[in-house]
Every structure is written in C-alpha cells, then in structure tokens.
Amino acid sequence: MISHIILMGITFSFGVYFIVLKEYFNATAMQTLWIGCINTGLVLGGGPIAAITLNKFGCRPSIIVGGLLAALGFLLSYFVTNTYQLMLTYGLVTGLGFGLVYTPCVVMVSNYFNKWRYLATAIACTGEGLGFVIFPIIFNLEIEHYGWRGSMIVNAGIVLNLVVCGFVMKPCQTDRAIVKMDLIDASLLKDFWMFLFAFSMIFWNIGTIVFHFIVSDYLIENNIETGKAIYFLTIMGVANMIGHPFAGLTVLLPSLPHANKWIYVTSVLIYGTGTLLFVLDTTYEWYIFLGIVVDFFWGLQLGCMANVIIDLFGMEKFNHSYGYQMFSQGIGNIIGPPIAGALRDYTQSYVFSLLFAGAANVMSAVIMFIIILKKPRQQPQQEEVKPKSET
Question: If we measure between CA atoms, which residue out of 119, 62, 138, 144 comes closest to residue 259?
Fold first, then answer.
C-alpha cells in the first residue's frame, strides 16, 4: 500500500506542478503537459518492460532499481533550465523508474491471494487514493517553502522509500516460477479481446489523466482561488480513496456473473458523464460535488482493474495481460494531455479539453460493454499461492 501511496500520489498530482511550471517557464499548456504525460505514460506504458524484469529477476529487484531511478530523475530535475529538460528528467527518468515499481507491486498482491484476491487487491490499491489526498497538499507546501526546484530534492527523498518497500516485501512462490514463462506471450497479442480491451484502456486513460492534469487550472480560469483549486485535488482524492475498497465487495457476490466488470464499466460511464458536466460554468460547490462523484467512481475503477483483467484473461496469464494493458494505458496517458493542451492553446479555454476527456471515457465504457456481452467468461483458479523465499 505504501508503494501505491507514493507512486500514484506523485504521478497523478502533477496538476499542481502544471500550474507552477507553466507560469515559471512561460510555456504553453501543451508544452507543459508533455512533462506530466511522459511520466505517467511510462509509469503505465512501462508495463511490458517491468514484466520482463520481474520475470527475469523477480519482483523485489525490479522495485528496488525502479525506486533508485525515480529518485535520480527528481534530483536531476533540480538543475533543469527549460521544460524540454524536465521532459527528460521528471518525465523520462522518473517515469521509467515508477514503471519498474508499479507492475511488480500489483503482481505480488495478486499472486498471494485467490479466494480473497478481489478484496486484497482493492485494499492494496486504496493507497493510490490516499496518495491522491496527501500529495497535492505536500507539493503545495514544498513549493511554498522551498520553491519548485527545492521540492524536487524533497521528492527524491520521498521516493527512496520505494527502495525500502522493495527490500521488505516478502517474495511469493511465483516470483521465481514465472521465469520459466516466455517473456512475450504471443497468444495474448493475437487475442482479439485483448486488442479490443487495449483500445478501451487507451480511451479510459485519455479521459482520466486529462481531467486530473487540467482541472485545477480550469477552476482558476473560472475565478476560483488558486489555493481552493489545488486543494480540490485533495477533495477528489478522499472520494477516490473511499471508492477503492468498495470494489473488493464483489468477493461477497460469487454467484453474480461479471460483477467486477459491470461495476467497472458503469463507473467509467459515470466518470465520463461527470467530466462532461464540468464544462457548465457554475459554483465551486457544484464543482466539488462533481469532483467527489467522478473520483469515487474512479476509485472503483482502479480497485476493480486487476480483478477485471484476471476475470477476462485468467490468472495464469495475469503478469503479461496486466503488462499489456498498462502499455495501452501508457499510450492514452501520452497522447491525451498534449491534445487537450493543444485544444486549450487554440481556443484559450479548457471547455473543449474537458469535452474531449469526457467523450474518451464514454467511448471506453462502450467498448468495455461490448467485451462483457460477447467474450466468454474466464474460469477462476481455486488454489491460493503461498509465500516462499527466493533463495
């Protein structure tokens, strides 16, 4: 859970830095958003790379190396002089490090549990919601006291805790057994449903990442105080954290077919609709209500994700299928923000950027709805994986 707090909290709180860096470098929205989208794109799009490293060396080494690389990226960010250099340090180096951490953390939890896997995964991923709560506050305080450059040094120290997480995590039996697997599962690459699911993931991440990156700046443009606009991310984070564990309640519904998938697709649709409603020029209280709704259901989505993939493609192919879908998410994270930024720069308004994000989420839900109705159900495994030393 701690790794999720740090990794995803930092990644998805870039909206705070977006406001500061855009003003400091006098950069366009598109140019500044490239910094965050490269980072998040590699956190998720680095899934296949992480799958190879964890299959070859195990989960723990991948987490340790990733934590060190992410810290290095933050340290280098202190010395940059323009946004292009930040794209390399904050975006490329730190993003790749985070990518090496994220996949192994999810895989380890899913390999430990079978009967209680849905609940265990949802609880572990609740850390993401807690990260969304605290890191906008942390970033804002860091910038106020040390400036954005000094905050990069502080962030480097924070992410070194990922190295500690890698050392203390207990390896599981599959951590070495998966070495025998092929590094690339060709059967999944030929699977039509995986191909369709990948498109759903691309649209889903376009919608979610664009919204979280631009919403604070959008509120500022609508005459909301900067402090309120930044802490708006924290309010949404609370709703997200509450939504995560609700995804695990499907463990109490074993006789309900496709429970995880129906919860997921419904929450994506609600998230997209809420994003579309944000274009209404209204009160701060209305924005808070919409923010709570969309991020509660985003929390449900994140809590369901690993379990939906297991339901669709099976536990025996979870490592690769999770890596492939993360790669698809990475594509969405990379292409979404620059397009939204270009729309903002051209129209001088975030309205079309929000419409773009909401429409992407709705499209993702439509594709997922087709998958649920047409794809045969995957039979769950019954045996639980027991912890075992790597030695």
Answer: 119
